[in-house]
Each structure stands twice: as C-alpha cells, then as structure tokens.
Write a structure and sequence with these properties.
single chain; alpha/beta; two-stranded antiparallel sheet
C-alpha cells in the first residue's frame, strides 16, 4: 500500500507546461525578469498554452549542460558563446523559415556539425535571436548584450516555442 501511495503521489504534480523557457547568463541575473517574462508571455499566448519560465540566478556551465541533457525546455536563453558552442554540436533548431536572418545577423552561423556521410555542414542558419532586439525584453528593460533566444533540438513543443518567440518580437 505504501509503495502504491508513493507512486501515485509521484505522478501527481504540476502540469507540464506547453512552453518551458530556461534562462541563464554569465553577466546578469535573469531572475530579475523571469516572473514578469512568464506573466507577459502567458498573457500574449493566452490560456491555451501554459508557459513556465525558469531562471538560474548564477551562471554555471555544468547547470547549463544538465539543462540541455535533460531536454525539458522548449526555449533556451543563454550567452552567445554558449549558444554557438551548443549550436556547433547540432543542439539548436534552425529558425530561418520563421524569422528573417538578415534582421538578426548575430545569430547566424554554421553549425559545423558532422553529417551522416562524414562531411561537415558549413551552411549558415539563424540559430539564435538577440534578446536586445526583442520587443518583450525591451519593454521589461532587460536587454543584456550577447544574450540569445534559441530552441534546443530536444524541444518537445517546437511549434509552441516558435509562437512564444514570435510573441516576444511583437
């Protein structure tokens, strides 16, 4: 009976969000805006998509690695260096089809990922959008330089993540 109760309680918890955002930065504390970002994004996306924003108050590369490995987030907000390092490992969804790469040249780079045929992918794509260029962050007065919004390849809700990023631009 006790084991059954433990398993039942383990299954009871918060509903999983439709869009999970993880923020971490080397030069600022994203917890300053995480609650307001969640509230504003939730208002823009409406009640049909549940939004959750999680921010790390301190930068820790191991924490970031764990967050990528766990694969529980649909959007990652991180430094340019981290975005490019994980991007070069094939860690992000290309955003070219949804956003104008010419508008965000800082987020364009080649993944340099090794393909199945052992060639290196040198095609440049838009993988990240600078936070400083997004209206929602400007309104929140949180526009750190060299901080980017990206979608990890492990996202379970890519369409919802795209909707959320589009909402951040409006």
């Amino acid at each position: 009976m006790v084991l059954l109760a433990v398993f039942m309680l383990a299954g009871c918890g918060k509903d999983k969000p439709d869009v999970s955002v993880f923020m971490i930065d080397q030069n600022s504390d994203p917890t300053q805006v995480s609650d307001q970002l969640e509230k504003t994004l939730q208002e823009k996306l409406g009640p049909d998509l549940k939004v959750e924003v999680i921010a790390s108050p301190l930068y820790n590369p191991q924490k970031l690695m764990v967050e990528y490995a766990a694969g529980g987030h649909d959007i990652m907000i991180l430094s340019e260096d981290d975005m490019k390092n994980y991007g070069k490992l094939g860690g992000h969804v290309a955003l070219d089809d949804h956003f104008d790469a010419k508008k965000y040249p800082e987020g364009v780079f080649a993944s340099m990922e090794e393909k199945d045929d052992k060639t290196i992918d040198k095609t440049e794509h838009l993988y990240g959008i600078p936070v400083k260029d997004l209206k929602m962050f400007k309104d929140l007065k949180y526009t750190p330089d060299k901080l980017f919004v990206t979608i990890p390849i492990s996202s379970e809700h890519i369409d919802n993540a795209l909707k959320a990023i589009k909402a951040m631009t409006e």
